[in-house]
Amino acid sequence: MLSIILTIIILICLILISLIVIRKFPVLANINIQEMQAEKQAEIKMALLERRFVKRLKFLNKFSKSKIWQGLKTAANNFYSRVINLEKKYKEEKRAKKLIELTELEKEKKTKDRLSLAQELFKAENYSEAEKVYIEMLALNPQNVQAYLGLAQVYIKQKDFAHAQELYDHVLRINKDSDEAFSGLGDIAANQENWEQAKDNYEKSIELAKKNPKHYLDLATAHYKLNNPGRALTAVRRASELEPKNPKYLDCLIEAAIINRNKILALDTYNKLKEINPDNQKLIEFRQRIQEL
């Protein structure tokens, strides 16, 4: 009896299972076993690729810090620099060849144009471009003193005092009486705070060009630094005598007179400056300082 009951229960279960399978058969039919395997394989493959990629990244990161990589990087940079320099040299030689082929009249005109351009670039503080133009001028004429002097000034602005001195020395070999060369040597010494040497060179520039007020003003600066205010006043006074209506020199003369406590000279020069340049913003300050003498 018990076995019959069990048999009936088993049959009922089988019937129920059959009904569920039949109902879900369309869904089961849509399941592609091969696609499931392919997706599983794709997941496994992607995981392997990710691990391999991460491993390679670690290797590349380690390799980038190695001496081999640094050596290769340096070699590549050096090679690139050589290529750039060769290209630059080729262009410069090509340009120099064209300049040599010019007639003397063409060279003279081009030199004037180049000098004007170089001076404008220098005033605009575009020193690298001014340097190129001065070098181009020297390609036109290797004995062009103005080009050497201009180029030396560029190097002073760039704090390249060694090359600037070489150029001034070269100018003096071409023309031993170049006051501008001695003035330039004074500027180099002044930039290096060698004021005694600066004074000597400025004095030489004055000997060669006694009517150049700039040299006297440079000499005055050196005397101030050497604690010689009386001599500085004499130098500034001479500069102002050469250009009596120049506000810059009158300004410097008032300053020198005040430092030397020469109230009469300071007041007289103040009146001249006020007449020539009434909008000068330093007039009020000068007036007050003069009154305090």
User: Whole-number radius of gyration?
Assistant: 44 Å
Tell me the β content.
under 5%
Return the average pLDDT rounded to an integer.
79
**Segments where pLDDT lies below 50 for 5+ residues?**
27-36
CATH architecture heading of the domain at 87-176? Alpha Horseshoe
What is the tally of beta strands?
0
Give the helix/strand class: mainly alpha
CATH topology of the domain at 87-176: Serine Threonine Protein Phosphatase 5, Tetratricopeptide repeat
Helix share of residues?
over 70%
In CATH, what is the class of the domain at 87-176?
A: Mainly Alpha
CATH superfamily of the domain at 87-176: Tetratricopeptide repeat domain
Overall geometric form: extended
Q: Total number of helical segments?
A: 14
Distance between the termini: 141 Å
SSE series: HHHHHHHHHHHHHH
